[in-house]
C-alpha cells in the first residue's frame, strides 16, 4: 500500500513537471561567454487538462526589472515562432550576417533591444508554433479566440509563479497577423480584472506594428502601389473603374473580365518587388498580394540563397534551432518537436475573427494606451489601411500630424488621439521592426516612458 502511494505521488510530480517548467539559460551555443542578460525559457500548460503546452522565452529588463514594464510579444503568421521577434526585431541578440558553413551560427549583441527598458515574454502561440505543442489531437486545433484565451491563461499562471512582476505595468504587443489576437487578449485581461480574477494584471495598454486588423486592408495595396509609383496612374484608374475599388477575390465576379485582367497587370507590374519592404532587393518573398477568383498564385518566385537577403537569416535560425546542443541549452523537451520551423503553415488553425476594430474601440473606451506603428514601405499591410481604421474609430485628434526625429533626422510622422492612441510611421521601414531597429528602439523608449515622440 505504501509502495503504491509512493508511485502515485511520483506520477503526480512527473505530471506537474510536464505541465509547467521553467529554467534559466546562462549560455547559448554561438554566443561567446555567459549571456549578459537574464534569459529564462519554459512551458506553461493551458486549456483542458493543460493539454496545450505553451513555450516561452523571457528576458528581464536590463534597466530596472523590479519596476519596468512587462510585456508579452506575439509574432505573426499565424504560426510563426516568437523567437523571430527576439532574434530579429526587438531582442538583445541577433545572428552575425555570414554565410552558413555547417558550424553553429554566431550570435552577437544588439544595442537596440526593447529589453533595455522592459521585461519581455516572447510567446510561441498558437499551439503548434515554435516549440509549443499539444498532447492530444483535439488540443492541436485553435482559432483567434482560443489563442487569446490560452494567452490570458498563460499570463495568469506565469504571474502566479513569478509574483515579483504582478505589480509591474503590463502591455500586450505584437506585429503583422498578431494585430488580430493582441486586442482580443487585451480585452480578456481587462474583463478578467473587472471580474475579480486572480492575479490582477496591471494592464496599461498594447503595442502593434503593421497590424492585420480588418478585411478591407487588401484593397489598400493597390492604392499604396500607385502612391509609390509601382503602377501607373492609368492602371490605377482603370482598376478602380473596372473593380469598383474592391479587389478581394470573394467580391469579384469571374465574369468581370476587365477587373481580372487589370489585376493581372497589377501583379505583372510589381513582379520582382519585395512586399515586406519595397526598398529592399528581391529575395523571393512568396505571398498572395491579390488573390484572383481563379485561385492562381500569380506572385511566386524561387528564393535566392544569399547572405545579402534578409530572409537568409531565417535559414541560420532554422539550422541553429535544429541542433541538439541548442535545444539542450534552451531546455526543450525531447521528443515533442522533431523539426523546428519558423512559421508553421500546417497549423490546425481556423481564422474566425477577421475584424478587430470593435476590440480597439472597447479598449479605447476603457482608457488603455496604445501605440500603433507602421513601416511606410510595407506593401503587405500599407500604412494607409492602418490610418483608415484608426480614423473609423472616430476619436478626435489631440496632436496634429507632425514629424518625429531620431538623432536629429526625421524618422517618420506621428499623430495622437483622444483615446490615448498614438499612430507612428517609421520612414523607410517595412513590415516589422527589424527593418529599422534603431528608429523603432527610439520610438518604443519614448512611448513606454510616457515621453513625447
TrEMBL record:
GO molecular function annotation: serine-type carboxypeptidase activity; sinapoyltransferase activity
Signal peptide stretch: 1-23
Alphabetized UniProt keyword annotations: Glycoprotein, Secreted, Signal
Keyword Ion transport in annotation: no
Keyword Coiled coil: no
A Pfam short name: Peptidase_S10
InterPro entries cross-referenced by the UniProt entry: AB_hydrolase_fold, Peptidase_S10
One of the GO biological process terms: proteolysis
PANTHER family, per the entry: SERINE CARBOXYPEPTIDASE-LIKE 19 (PTHR11802:SF29), SERINE PROTEASE FAMILY S10 SERINE CARBOXYPEPTIDASE (PTHR11802)
Family membership: Belongs to the peptidase S10 family.
Protein name (database record): Uncharacterized protein
Organism from which the protein derives: Tagetes erecta (African marigold)
Amino acid at each position: 500500500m505504501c509502495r503504491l502511494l509512493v508511485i502515485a505521488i511520483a506520477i503526480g510530480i512527473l505530471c506537474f513537471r510536464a505541465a509547467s517548467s521553467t529554467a534559466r539559460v546562462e549560455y547559448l551555443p554561438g554566443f561567446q561567454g555567459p549571456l549578459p542578460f537574464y534569459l529564462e525559457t519554459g512551458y506553461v500548460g493551458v486549456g483542458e487538462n493543460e493539454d496545450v503546452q505553451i513555450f516561452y522565452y523571457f528576458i528581464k529588463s536590463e534597466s530596472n526589472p523590479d519596476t519596468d514594464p512587462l510585456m508579452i510579444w506575439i509574432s505573426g503568421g499565424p504560426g510563426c515562432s516568437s523567437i523571430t521577434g527576439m532574434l530579429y526585431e526587438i531582442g538583445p541578440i541577433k545572428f552575425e550576417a555570414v554565410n552558413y558553413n555547417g558550424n553553429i551560427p554566431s550570435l552577437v549583441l544588439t544595442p537596440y533591444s526593447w529589453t533595455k527598458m522592459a521585461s519581455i515574454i516572447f510567446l510561441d502561440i498558437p499551439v503548434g508554433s515554435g516549440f509549443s505543442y499539444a498532447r492530444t489531437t483535439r488540443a492541436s486545433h485553435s482559432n483567434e479566440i482560443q489563442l487569446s484565451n490560452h494567452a490570458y491563461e498563460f499570463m495568469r499562471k506565469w504571474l502566479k509563479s513569478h509574483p515579483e512582476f504582478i505589480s509591474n505595468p503590463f502591455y500586450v504587443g505584437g506585429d503583422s497577423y498578431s494585430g488580430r489576437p493582441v486586442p482580443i487578449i487585451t480585452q480578456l485581461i481587462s474583463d478578467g480584472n473587472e471580474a475579480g480574477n486572480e492575479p490582477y494584471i496591471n494592464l496599461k495598454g498594447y503595442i502593434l506594428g503593421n497590424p492585420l486588423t480588418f478585411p478591407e486592408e487588401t484593397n489598400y495595396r493597390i492604392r499604396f502601389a500607385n502612391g509609390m509609383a509601382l503602377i501607373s496612374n492609368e492602371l490605377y484608374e482603370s482598376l478602380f473603374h473596372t473593380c469598383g475599388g474592391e479587389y478581394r477575390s470573394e467580391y469579384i465576379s469571374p465574369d468581370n473580365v476587365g477587373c481580372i485582367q487589370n489585376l493581372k497587370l497589377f501583379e505583372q507590374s510589381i513582379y520582382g518587388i519585395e512586399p515586406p519592404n519595397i526598398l529592399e532587393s528581391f529575395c523571393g518573398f512568396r505571398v498572395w498580394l491579390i488573390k484572383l477568383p481563379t485561385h492562381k498564385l500569380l506572385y511566386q518566385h524561387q528564393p535566392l540563397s544569399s547572405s545579402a537577403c534578409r530572409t537568409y537569416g531565417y535559414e541560420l535560425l532554422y539550422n541553429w534551432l535544429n541542433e541538439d546542443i541548442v535545444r539542450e541549452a534552451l531546455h526543450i523537451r525531447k521528443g515533442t518537436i522533431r523539426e523546428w520551423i519558423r512559421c508553421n503553415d500546417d497549423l490546425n488553425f481556423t481564422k474566425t475573427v477577421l475584424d478587430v476594430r470593435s476590440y480597439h474601440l472597447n479598449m479605447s473606451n476603457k482608457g488603455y494606451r496604445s501605440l500603433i506603428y507602421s513601416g511606410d514601405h510595407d506593401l503587405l499591410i500599407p500604412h494607409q489601411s492602418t490610418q483608415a481604421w484608426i480614423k473609423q474609430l472616430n476619436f478626435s485628434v489631440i496632436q496634429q500630424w507632425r514629424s518625429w526625429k531620431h538623432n536629429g533626422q526625421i524618422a517618420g510622422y506621428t499623430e495622437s488621439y483622444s483615446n490615448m492612441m498614438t499612430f507612428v510611421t517609421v520612414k523607410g521601414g517595412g513590415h516589422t521592426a527589424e527593418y529599422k531597429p534603431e528608429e523603432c528602439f527610439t520610438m518604443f523608449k519614448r512611448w513606454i516612458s510616457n515621453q513625447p515622440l
